[in-house]
Every structure is written in C-alpha cells, then in structure tokens.
Amino acid sequence: MKPRWFYALRPDAHAAAQLGALAARLAASVDGRPLSAGDMHLTLVFVGERPAEDEATLAGLLADLAPHWPAMALTRLGTFGRGLYWAGPTHPKGEPQADTASPASSASPASPAPPTLSAWPAQLTAQLQQRLRAAGIAFDERTLHLHATLVRGARRDARSALTALAGALPIEPDSWTLALGCSDAASTPQRRYRWREAPAGQPHWAV
Hints:
By secondary structure, the protein is of the alpha+beta class.
C-alpha cells in the first residue's frame, strides 16, 4: 500500500497517556479498537496517498513553522456514525466564530466549562494548505473538524458511554507539536503512525 500522509498536532506525553487510557476504557464499552497514546493527534490537513519518495517534500513544507503550539483543551466526546469515537476541542473548526452545529457528528459536552480558544488552529491549517497548493500537491479540502480519534470499528452503539466517560475531560495538553504523519504497510495496532516533527529552532506559535 502507498503511504498515506497528513499534517497534525500531537499532544504532550502526559496528555497522550490520558487519551490512550480514555480510549482503552471507551473501546471496552463499544467493542472497538482503541488508538494507542503514541498515535493520538488532531489532523489539520489530510494529504492522502503519495509515494514514500515524497516524504522529504512534504516534510519540507513545515520549514519556518513553529514546532510547538499553545495549550488547547479537549473538552468534548463525540462520534462519527456508529464506528468512530473521538475527543475534541470546544471549537472544532479552529476558531470560535466559524463553528456551527454539524449534522454529521454528535457530541456530549464535558464539564467544567471550556476555555476560550483562539483562531490559531484555523490559521495554521490555512497556511499549510497554501503551501501545499503552491507545491502543486492535492489534499482533502473538506472543512476542518479538529478531533482526536479514540476508537475505530466500534461494534456497539453505546453513546451512553460518552456521558459516563465525560468526567474524564477536559484533557489539557500543555502544548501541541506540529508534525507530518504517515500510515503505511508497517503500521500495526500498537503503532499506526510514524511521525516527522517540524524542525526545531523556529519561533513558537507564529502564523
């Protein structure tokens, strides 16, 4: 299989461990496949299948972008259909004024009340898209919906589990790391993705 590429934000190790534990609990409730802590991420831009030889080009588009980005809490649990369960921020489109209710997904709010989110995720996504267009690289242009997949392939529709587990939120990463992600023939349930982080040495949080 050809590698599948995407740009994403990865949570810090402590938050990733919390998400991994939450995924395991949820998977037991819905009879699904949990993602591991090391695979947790928020996709910004999905590029799709491209040859392995394109890795250097795709990684090069991260040049001059900050590797680390500020805290953004995950405050909601939700589903896409019956099979996929996720945790996401209060503003899934990356900026408060852009968010509207989405008929394609359902979510349950967690308490306490979520913090205000700035527009930097949407701005960063737009910048990555601009660089891909300039490089002539096609990508999925569907509207951004920030979420960290917790469980895939759920066999039971147990949305009541979302209410029961809402107390596990918010999960509050201290920072997020920008990275190029890839799934390929070497992917396993324990390690679905490999990562190439944005180069160090750039200013933080600059768009």
